Amino acid sequence: MQERGYTAPVLIDESGDVTGRIYGVWGPPTAYAIDRQGRLVGRIVGSRDWGGRHGRELVQTLLAARAPR
Question: Is the pLDDT of residue 6 over 80?
């Protein structure tokens, strides 16, 4: 994580118990969005340009989503 300069929290799941069994993520590059309640709300397999317009818009939309009451 330090070598790549990650600034967000990163899950290290060597056993695959969380990423594989719970979220169905088996290999990189996979990005997934988890809501405030810990539920999987989206998954994208393959690399993406998160700094481009579409990537930023997607992230902004997810961040703006209201939490269920």
Answer: no
